[in-house]
Design brief:
The protein has helices spanning 2-14, 46-61, 92-95; strands at 19-30, 35-42, 74-79, 102-107, 109-118, 121-131. The longest helix has 16 residues, at 46-61. The radius of gyration is 17 Å and the shape is globular. It is of the alpha+beta class. A 4-stranded antiparallel sheet has the order 3-2-1-4, with no helix packed on it. The protein has a two-stranded antiparallel ribbon with strand order 5-6. It has a single domain, classed as Cyclic phosphodiesterase (Cyclic Phosphodiesterase, Chain: A, Alpha-Beta Complex), CATH 3.90.1140. The two termini are 26 Å apart. Strand 1 (19-30) and strand 2 (35-42) form a beta hairpin.
């Protein structure tokens, strides 16, 4: 199965031009009052939406289920340990009301990552990288 995913990502990446991703603001999933994940927002530009759609269609053709949730591009910057009590993040919603960060990054590749969660936290491993082409 990993080989199918790798082939699809390589094909999609080769046909997608590099682009700039705009980063802005922070947030949390599922909510800032009870966060599991803290994130940095990524503007869903047309180039990013096309890349996401091409990957999703390619994976769908290989038998993967299509995503039905709304697209919320983001960079995960942290995970919350459940040991923190309900009041541990009091005031986070007020802190995040004003976007405290804005910037951009050049997107030049698609990375295939493995995410493993355990009691010690999440561990991410880079499996392979596919440079973006010229479209």
């Amino acid at each position: 199965m990993r080989l199918f995913v790798a082939l699809i990502l390589a094909r999609v990446a080769a046909g997608s031009p590099p682009f700039v991703a705009d980063l802005s603001g922070f947030g949390a999933f599922p909510t800032v009052r009870r966060p599991n994940v803290l994130w940095l927002g990524v503007e869903p530009t047309p180039a990013l939406r096309c890349l996401k759609q091409d990957v999703e269609w390619g994976l769908g053709d290989a038998g993967f289920e299509r995503e039905t949730r709304a697209f919320h591009p983001h960079l995960t910057i942290g995970r919350v340990e459940r040991e923190n009590g309900a009041g541990a993040f009091r005031g986070l919603d007020e802190m995040l009301a004003e976007p405290p960060y804005a910037g951009s990054v050049q997107v030049k590749s698609v990375e295939l990552m493995r995410s493993q969660t355990s009691r010690d936290g999440a561990q991410y491993t880079l499996l392979s990288s596919y440079p973006l082409g010229e479209g």
